[in-house]
């Protein structure tokens, strides 16, 4: 093998190093040991290049995160300058640093309502983990020590720490080899209008979802439920856009029962739906707490944040005797905070929120035609979030057997044609950078159309019935 200290490894060497030594998130051991991983070496804007020089349009946006696009020199300079000036400084107890303090103020400025307080984490999972614990802390501070339970939804994804993965409930995430927290966590029906009960209107479906929440509170007891956590649009769970009034009505229920609303905006924050944050701006639902990460730095360095209301701060701080015993070594890391400040500056200067809204509408319109293909059950999404759901039977909406693997086949076919889309179960999901152009959207639509047709033909030849 090539000596990595003195020579540049070949693409084959890199793949083999990775295959022999790396455990990837969500590794499937069989396919990984057979095939290894795609080695990415460079990125610019919406494009990636692998170690062998092949170019790809990244319609996935990393993992919902490369909002301003890759290869920004001014981002690299801001990160380097801060690392030279102050590479690390603790923010525990009573110490801070310049970028962390300024970023706290900036997030308070762009967050809705009275969400003027910020606790920094290392990413989305740790933001959710912290927020869920904060719910119990606040309720205890308000004299309700038993009000610690959390309500979430089926098909939700909230992270991969022990607590955040226990709160989420996406098919395929729960495996028998791991254990999960069960007590004090309840899940409601996924608000997917496309799979609502037959004969029920969307308005009736929304009524039923709200009634289900009320019934859960009645059954469990409001004195045991401290918070309700929801992604404005369920991202990895299938880009589920809820009924129009759903989220606002669910939050109204929360208010009546002193339940805190935690908006998981790890994906929807920082422009993906054309706003800094989506819960209030897009769905009329004011959060008590927002969890964010990903687009906060556009993936240039890891950083997450819990943004919460003055009311919550006042409850926790009342009397001055409590300690908030939660945090991480890299909370408020000065290099990460400097990257986030530059990222927000770029979004503002280039008006990327408006661009995301405009190109997002084109993105939705341009890909809507894929729904006419026999394998496609629905094309759905909002802004620069889109999902193609594949089915075996369009009339019944029944999926193909899992072993058909049609979504992975589609993503593989796209990859061979220079396009990256993400397969999740029977879905192909896209979340491109906010800087994507209409011409690039056209390319996504054209390649995806060809890939779906190609895979459909292959499946029919193999004996699968599609229609």
Please describe the topology of this protein:
Layout: H1 11-21, H2 29-35, E1 40-44, E2 47-50, E3 55-58, H3 61-64, H4 73-85, H5 98-110, E4 117-121, H6 124-141, E5 149-153, H7 162-167, E6 185-188, H8 202-220, E7 225-230, H9 246-256, E8 260-264, H10 279-283, E9 289-292, E10 304-308, H11 310-317, H12 334-349, H13 352-368, E11 376-382, E12 385-390, H14 406-416, E13 419-420, E14 422-424, E15 427-430, H15 438-461
Parallel strand pairs: 3-13, 5-6, 5-7, 7-8, 8-9
Antiparallel strand pairs: 1-2, 2-3, 4-10, 9-10, 11-12, 12-15, 14-15
Commentary on this structure:
It is built from 15 helices and 15 strands. The chain has 467 residues and is of the alpha/beta class. It has 2 domains: 38-68 and 352-461, Aspartate Aminotransferase, domain 1, CATH 3.90.1150; 74-349, Type I PLP-dependent aspartate aminotransferase-like (Major domain) (Aspartate Aminotransferase, domain 2), CATH 3.40.640. The strands form 3 sheets. A 7-stranded mixed sheet has the order 4-10-9-8-7-5-6, sandwiched between helices. A 4-stranded mixed sheet has the order 1-2-3-13. A 4-stranded antiparallel sheet has the order 11-12-15-14, with helices on one face.
């Amino acid at each position: 093998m090539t000596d990595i200290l003195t020579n540049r490894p070949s693409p084959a060497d890199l793949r083999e190093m990775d295959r022999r030594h790396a455990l990837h998130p969500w590794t499937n051991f069989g396919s990984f040991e057979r095939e290894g991983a795609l080695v990415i070496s460079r990125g610019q804007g919406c494009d990636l290049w692998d170690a062998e020089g092949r170019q790809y349009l990244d319609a996935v946006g990393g993992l919902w995160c490369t909002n301003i696009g890759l290869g920004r020199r001014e981002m690299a300079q801001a990160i380097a300058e801060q690392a030279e000036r102050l590479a690390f400084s603790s923010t525990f107890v009573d110490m801070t640093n310049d970028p962390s303090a300024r970023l706290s103020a900036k997030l308070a400025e762009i967050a809705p309502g009275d969400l003027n307080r910020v606790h920094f984490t290392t990413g989305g999972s740790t933001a959710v983990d912290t927020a869920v614990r904060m719910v119990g802390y606040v309720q205890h501070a308000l004299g309700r020590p038993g009000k610690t339970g959390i309500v979430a939804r089926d098909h939700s994804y909230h992270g991969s720490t022990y607590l955040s993965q226990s709160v989420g409930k996406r098919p395929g995430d729960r495996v028998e080899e791991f254990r999960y927290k069960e007590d004090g966590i309840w899940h409601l029906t996924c608000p997917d209008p496309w799979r609502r009960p037959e004969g029920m209107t969307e308005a009736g479906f929304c009524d039923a979802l709200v009634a289900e929440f009320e019934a859960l509170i009645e059954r469990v007891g409001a004195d045991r439920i401290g918070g309700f956590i929801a992604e404005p649009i369920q991202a990895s769970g299938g880009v589920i856009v809820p009924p129009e009034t759903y989220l606002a009505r669910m939050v109204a229920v929360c208010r009546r029962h002193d339940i805190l609303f935690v908006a998981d905006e790890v994906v929807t924050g920082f422009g993906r739906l054309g706003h800094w944050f989506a819960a209030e701006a897009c769905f009329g639902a004011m959060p008590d707490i927002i969890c964010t990460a990903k687009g906060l730095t556009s993936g240039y360095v890891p950083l997450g944040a819990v943004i919460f209301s003055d009311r919550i701060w006042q409850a926790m701080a009342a009397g001055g005797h409590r300690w908030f015993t939660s945090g991480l070594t890299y909370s408020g890391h000065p290099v990460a905070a400097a990257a986030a400040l530059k990222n927000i500056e770029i979004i503002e200067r280039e008006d990327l929120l408006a661009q995301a809204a405009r190109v997002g509408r084109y993105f939705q319109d341009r890909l809507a035609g894929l729904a006419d293909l026999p394998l496609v059950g629905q094309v759905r999404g909002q802004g620069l979030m889109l999902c193609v759901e594949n089915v075996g039977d369009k009339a019944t909406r029944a999926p193909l057997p899992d072993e058909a693997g049609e979504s992975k086949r589609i993503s593989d076919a796209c990859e061979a044609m220079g396009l990256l889309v993400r397969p999740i179960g029977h879905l192909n999901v896209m979340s491109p950078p906010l800087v994507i152009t209409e011409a690039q959207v056209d390319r996504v639509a054209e390649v995806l159309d060809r890939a779906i047709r190609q895979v459909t033909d292959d499946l029919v030849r193999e004996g699968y019935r599609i229609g």
